[in-house]
């Protein structure tokens, strides 16, 4: 004090005014480009003789700049102009006393606010928001601010235990929030998409943002040659919520060893897509993605029943799938020997001998090939046990097999298997399998609805949206 905008002389000056005309002499008004004044002080000839604002010209119609014309003035009394001069950028012939005045400068900013006014939820009360700011959206909170639901937090935040949390539920939300920094390790809070969200549950996950349009959270990796066998009977890996079955939980090993993210496997139920990426020690060969038949179940739930199952139970995916890369003929999930194998199935039972069934934890098979004793004698899947209940692992029990005909060796994948009936080479094709999930919005890659709209509704995903650079007609 004195200051013409922020505090100054007028305690009831709640608002800024532009192009004000003050002063008690209508013949010589005081003009300001910007002033902080009470409403009654903004009309020419009605107020006391004070100059108060930025961009000034006082005693207008008098001699040119007899009273100050300059950057800023805050004349508090009628004694003389100098007691409220601000800085030295002015002209005046009537200034009495010394100058320059108070050394203050003024920076003016704007922003598109959500009525947050300072990072706390409704720093102004809700009723004040529409009064002061009738054209701004509802109040929202920054990280750490209070909330009642997600809509009361800024974009990219989630409401957990009535606090806006900066951690997002999965890699898909990271991608949609524009926070992706490429493939790698990110901190997420997957409990935010569960029935019991917790602001304290934070975990690291491996996000795949460069394949299949990004947003994928890795859940499993089956390395077919790391010395740990993930055959059908390894129930700790395939069926247990926390046990690893010899796999790693260290993200640094998530593409070079058998790997399992136990929480995402057993608890995350918000995904509606799955991707299988075939690779060699992390170097991608090809991939395929599908929509899940159920978008409200955990991945673990797909392995907790025993065959034979009904088609509804063992169908893991249903609907649109997309592929990328060069497909290997010997591969049990992406393409393989069955060109009409459009979907993945879990807990399949195949083989043409009802007494010697072939079991797989995951297979890409036509529907008619998934029932015990009804199909030709081919083994096709990952997490295998063949010719059961014959001698344990007489035919291969192992990580992955893609037998199309003849001897078992024709489709062996990797070296992690047991068998007493293998003929020929003992180490098969060197392919490993990473399994990812995501909660998709039917975008599939930054282009607006690359699959038809009617398919979006069929597979129960939200409305199509575009990533940066994608086409749109409205913000929604």
Q: Quick gist of this model?
A:
The chain is mostly beta strands and 476 residues long. It contains six helices and 20 strands.
Walk me through this protein's architecture.
The protein has 476 residues and is mainly β. Helix content is 7%, strand content 26%. The chain is built from six helices and 20 strands. It has helices spanning 128-132, 171-176, 235-239, 262-267, 311-314, 453-458; strands spanning 16-22, 30-36, 52-57, 69-74, 90-91, 158-160, 163-165, 184-188, 203-208, 216-222, 259-260, 273-280, 283-292, 317-325, 344-350, 357-364, 380-388, 397-402, 412-418, 432-438. The strands form four sheets. Strands 8, 9, 10, 11, 12, 13, 14 and 20 form an eight-stranded antiparallel beta sheet that branches. The protein has a five-stranded antiparallel beta sheet with strand order 1-2-3-4-5, with no helix packed on it. A hairpin with a 7-residue loop joins strand 1 (16-22) and strand 2. The radius of gyration is 35 Å and the shape is rod-shaped. The relative contact order is 0.08. Mean pLDDT is 74; it is low at 116-131 and 443-461.
């Amino acid at each position: 004090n004195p200051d013409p905008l922020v505090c100054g002389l007028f305690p009831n000056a709640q608002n800024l005014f532009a192009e004000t005309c003050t002063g008690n002499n209508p013949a010589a008004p005081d003009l300001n480009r910007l002033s902080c004044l009470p409403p009654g002080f903004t009309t020419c000839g009605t107020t006391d003789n004070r100059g108060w604002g930025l961009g000034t010209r006082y005693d207008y119609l008098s001699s040119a700049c007899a009273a100050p014309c300059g950057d800023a003035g805050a004349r508090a009394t009628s004694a003389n102009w100098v007691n409220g001069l601000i800085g030295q950028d002015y002209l005046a012939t009537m200034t009495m006393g010394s100058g320059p005045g108070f050394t203050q400068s003024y920076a003016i900013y704007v922003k598109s606010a959500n009525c947050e006014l300072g990072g706390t939820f409704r720093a102004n009360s809700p009723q004040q928001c529409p009064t002061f700011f009738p054209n701004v959206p509802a109040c929202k909170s920054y990280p750490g601010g209070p909330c009642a639901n997600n809509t009361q937090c800024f974009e990219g935040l989630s409401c957990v235990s009535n606090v806006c949390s900066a951690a997002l539920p999965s890699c898909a939300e990271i991608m949609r929030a524009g926070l992706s920094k490429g493939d790698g390790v990110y901190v997420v809070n997957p409990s935010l998409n569960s029935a019991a969200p917790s602001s304290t549950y934070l975990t690291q996950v491996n996000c795949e943002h460069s394949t299949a349009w990004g947003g994928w959270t890795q859940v499993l990796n089956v390395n077919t040659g790391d010395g740990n066998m993930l055959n059908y009977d390894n129930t700790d890996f395939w069926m247990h919520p926390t046990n690893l079955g010899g796999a790693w939980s260290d993200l640094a090993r998530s593409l070079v060893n058998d790997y399992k993210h136990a929480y995402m496997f057993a608890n995350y139920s918000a995904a509606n897509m799955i991707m299988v990426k075939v690779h060699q020690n992390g170097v991608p060969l090809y991939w395929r993605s599908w929509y899940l038949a159920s978008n409200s179940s955990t991945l673990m739930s797909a392995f907790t029943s025993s065959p034979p199952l009904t088609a509804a139970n063992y169908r893991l995916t249903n609907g649109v799938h997309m592929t990328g890369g060069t497909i290997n003929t010997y591969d049990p999930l992406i393409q393989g020997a069955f060109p009409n194998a459009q979907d993945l199935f879990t807990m399949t039972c195949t083989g043409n001998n009802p007494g010697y069934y072939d079991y797989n934890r995951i297979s890409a098979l036509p529907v008619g090939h998934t029932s015990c004793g009804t199909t030709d004698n081919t083994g096709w899947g990952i997490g295998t046990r063949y010719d059961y209940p014959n001698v344990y692992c007489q035919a291969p029990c192992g990580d992955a097999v893609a037998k199309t005909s003849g001897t078992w060796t024709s489709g062996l994948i990797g070296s992690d298997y047991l068998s007493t009936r293998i003929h020929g080479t003992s180490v098969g094709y060197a392919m490993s399998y990473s399994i990812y999930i995501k909660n998709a919005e039917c975008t599939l890659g930054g282009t607006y609805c690359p699959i038809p709209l009617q398919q979006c509704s069929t597979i129960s995903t939200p409305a199509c949206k575009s990533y940066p650079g994608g086409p749109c007609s409205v913000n929604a």
